[in-house]
Design goal:
9-stranded mixed beta sheet; alpha/beta; single chain; 33 helices; 5-stranded mixed beta sheet; binds S-adenosylmethionine
Amino acid sequence: MNAVEIEEAISLLADQAFDAAEFPYAFLESFGNKAATIKRLRSGNSNKSDVGGVLQTNNIHMLVCGEGEVTASLDALRGSLATTKAKAKFILATDGVEFEAENTASGETVACDYAKFPDHFGFFLALAGISTVKEIRNSAIDIKATGRLNRLYIELLKNNPGWSTPERRHDMNHFMARLIFCFFAEDTDIFLGDDLFTSTVEQMSDSKSANTHEIISETFRAMGVKVADRPNADLPRWANGFPYVNGGLFTSNVDVPKFSRIARKYLLHAGRLDWQQINPDIFGSMIQAVADDEERGSLGMHYTSVENILKLLNPLFLDDLREQLAEAGESKVKLLNLRKRMAKIRIFDPACGSGNFLVIAYKQMREIEYEINKRRIETNQRSEIPLTNFRGIELRDFPAEIARLALIIAEFQCDVIYRGQQDALAEFLPLNAMNWITQGNALRVDWLSVCPPTGTGVKLIGDDLFSTPLDQAEIEFENEGGETYICGNPPYAGLSSQGKEQKDDLEVLFEGVTKYWKSFDYVSGWLFKSKKYMEHVGCAAAFVTTNSICQGQQVPMMWPIVLKDSVAINFAHSSFKWSNLAARNAGVTVVIIGITNRACLKKKLYSIKKDGETTERLVNELNAYLIPTKNQYITPVSKPYNKGKSEMVWGNKPVDGGSLILSSEEANKIIKDEPATSAFIRPYFGSEEYIRGKQRFCIWVKDEERGIAEKFEAFSSRFQQVKKMRASSKAKETRPAAEYPHRFRQIQGNPGELAIIIPIHTSENRHYLPVGLLPYGSIISNAAYGIYNAPIWNMSIIASSLHLVWIATVCGKIKTDFRYSNTLGWNTFPIPKLTEKNKDDLSKSAEDILLARETHFPATIADLYNPDTMPDNLRYAHKRNDEVLERIYIGRRFKNDTERLEKLFDLYTKMTSSETKLNVKKAQG
Ligand SMILES: C[S@@+](CC[C@H](N)C(=O)[O-])C[C@H]1O[C@@H](n2cnc3c(N)ncnc32)[C@H](O)[C@@H]1O
């Protein structure tokens, strides 16, 4: 269950008559517990309460008590041994009149009337596995509003199927935006009188709902007519109380979908909420999914915390404003200059969704402006920060509508806070008609037309804030000398999640610029368009993106196109989890990257420490891998740069339709039937076989042995199948291989000799790469790499933390696996010149790792390298190995991965400098 569904379920529970016996089970059911779980608790099998209540292990201990005994009951629950033993996260006591609960870990409590407990549902979200975010817990209203409107939306579409067609979807979305505006306006005195809109609908429409749509339509019509024009507008008397709103919100078609009785009820329920408290950023993000059939299931889950948004906005421009404010002190002139500067700052989010980045930016700037006004003793001053300076592009119609509304609501709320309700009201209506959120595809729309740099002549005057479709922002532009900041969290979409349209967008965008665009994440489009924008004006941009954009092969392909013409990375936030509210959502790992073409001497690198604290580091350089060192792109090379390092080759590719590969059973049977075949059957290892201990074999016949091998029926029939499969292959390079069906199509290195195996894919959860030695005679498949007849110190290097961090950065990942590459990861990995002593020490520690593994025979590599259960002796052997290797690099252990990478990048730069390359060549003759 998601947060919205939970809120609905417990609201329903609180509305019903209190049933003492049933309450605990109904409460648990509201948080998504399955019927079977409740049944077990009810039967007493899993209920371990020692105070006569209901105890769900690891979750909650509840007690329903006699009237007036709630506090004492909570005390009893707190003191209960069973509460502690069962690690209950919450204790809860109620008598149906009062309600008290406590979070046993934090000690936080809730005490309220029973009827009001649904207001505190955020407190209990952990019961459903949803880790709460502070703002959400305090935002019951946003979740409630989302839930109510969602029900209404679905019910309306059920009754008005025509409104869900693509042609009418916009009307439906616009209708919802109008409703939200009315709910907000009636609770904030923008409309005169209590609940003017909801009460009007309730009183004027009949309860069977036949005319609800007509009543609403008339109120909408009234809000589109100026007071002066009203005498000729033929408005019903009761609609005359609604003010003229303008802003395009009520000017066009005032069609309203038909209401069923249920829909009417939902509308009245929604109207009864206190919309004054709505948080436009939170609510906007939550409600986005309402209009999206595919996303509705995750309703309310797309919430991005303010804290995370500020991680981007602060270094992008807010920190600078605050510094200027601090520096201005009480100087009236300096304060005025800052205010003037802020009035010309434009924030542009080209994937703005419901406008949360823009709303937060606006609110923060208003806070700073207020501080200026306070120091200048001008608190009555009207805000000089125009809402029209907060611009966005959004693909989907509904979020674009909501973004416009969210900004209007944010402006009103800020006016109330900083100037008082009266002034806020006096200036609110009619709404400004200028449109600043464009609905469209940001990779196709010309950003200069939406957010023109200062001094250009784009001057389109709009007259309808909400009219659509909008291909272009319609705004009179007067902003000479202003700054522009581009921001947002555009869709990341890696290769496998891009749809055809997204691939087309990239093709159009990068055509003639690079041939590598097929390997780019979709988000690269936003980085590239920011760079293009910077060709016209000095500005700064920052985006949240998955860290894949700064890892692996994409880096040398994509970043050189962005980081040129004075564009550089000026700040970055290294990888952290960006989670939303979805139950048990682990979140994606993201980075924040800021780029600018303005002069910037020092760059900032932020990272989150293990204790959650964010550190800021001033550095001279930040490269595209987000390492504080000179920009360097790591590209594949066919041989190792370092002399002495052994050559690593790809495993052997059968291209056999499976005929040359044998399961254990097949191999055993063939050998049993014909023992002489055993000379041609070898253990076969790829990633899966090596890591998970799956036994497989392959038929391995050298050319000179073909005649003998073909005499075995078990082999010859398989060779026939290989021949047939290859001969009919679509791949032209495979067809000639039909001539030698007794062997793999591609053979590399010295298969069968002593080999170090390196799987291509390995889970990102493992702390070390699972490298190892294979039994003599084994064959490595194309799912792994091999180093043949090599000194074992090579293994020590591959097994080190240092190498892993290089591979993660330089080779990148596929889904949640590291993807090893010999040419990109091994050949480029810089190692200092090793003395014989170094090599001996490394060989010894590689042997120690192998010996430590041996002591756990027959545990598989997957078992041994499970980060939660890795045996101590193996962990120790790896630590020693890291110690030995890192001492060779810097004489001590590295402090962290950033330091490791800094060193490696420095060494790489030296190793690949043209002078060094020349010397190596000379030395090699
Ligand atoms: C990750 S969301 C971010 C929205 C918002 N900032 C938030 O935190 O909820 C990305 C947004 O980009 C929009 N989007 C996707 N492709 C787009 C495109 N080509 N042009 C403009 N917007 C796009 C999506 O509809 C979505 O609202």
